[in-house]
Amino acid sequence: MTPDGPVTLDGPVTRARGDAAAPAESFTEEHFVNLYLAKDDPWDNATKWSDRRKYAITAASLPREHYRRAYEPGCAVGELTRLLAPRCDSLLAVDCVDAAVEQASAAVASFPHVEIARALLPAELPTGTFDLIVIGDLLYYLSAADLTALLDGLLARLEPGGDIAAVHFRDRGGAGNYDGFNVHETLIARPGLEHVVHHSDDWFVLDILTAAR
Fold first, then answer.
1. What are phi and psi of 38, to 5 degrees?
2. How much is the average pLDDT of 88-105?
């Protein structure tokens, strides 16, 4: 667990729990559709070094070599999905934008055990349970109510002893920006999880937690 008081990061920025608020309403499906209409890869996930490095560190930090059934909500164009695929017997990755689903499907076409599907979260959560859930750059787009609903749903689907990994952009420009620091604090505060991995740097924050058995 992180301390209750202020957390000082490298450099001049000091962050404290609750120092930024979630959006009043979740970003709409239309918002993300328009991003993909403007650009095939809106965040340059496939080409930007900071993202390729972030995904490599995330995959390398997973505590287990192999997982039975994994779930990746908000997969975008499938760059992280492609790294997770060899580590899982079964992997379900979802996004709310058809264009993202198409690109992610192409990225993992050589992995028949990976399913890419369209889903709007938190309303359309999958059935069954998972021993790995990986959430990348998704949670800070949700309102406080939707964030609570999604985390409730994800943790209800996480098997005892399963791992949940969250990796998000962190804005080091100044306190008061709702980013990976804030959404990870919300996840880490959930009971019944052991905090097993923490990584933070200029670009992102990564936390992996294991569900109690």
1. -80, -30
2. 98
Domain count, the chain: 1
pTM for the model: 0.92
Classify residue 13: in a domain, yes or no. Answer: no
Residues 6 or more apart whose CB falls under 8 angstroms from that of 38 comprise none
Chain segment 110-124, per-residue pLDDT in tens: 999 999 999 999 999
| Structural domain includes residue 130 | yes
Residue 3 lies in a domain: no
**Gap between the Cα atoms of 68 and 193, Å rounded:** 20
d(CA 91, CA 111): 10
**pLDDT at residue 15 tops 80:** no
Q: Establish if 51 belongs to a structural domain.
A: yes
Q: Is the pLDDT of residue 94 over 70?
A: yes
Q: Could you tell me the residue range of the domain that residue 156 belongs to?
A: 20-211
Q: Which alpha helices (DSSP H) does 125-191 contain, by range? A: 144-157, 180-188
The answer to whether 72 and 93 have CB atoms below 8 angstroms apart is yes
Q: Which residues contact 145 (CB under 8 A, 6 or more apart)?
A: none
Q: How would residue 125 be classed by pLDDT, with cut points 50, 70 and 90?
A: very high
Q: Sign (positive/negative) of CA torsion 33, 169, 79, 148?
A: negative
For the domain that residue 140 is a member of, what is the CATH number? Answer: 3.40.50.150
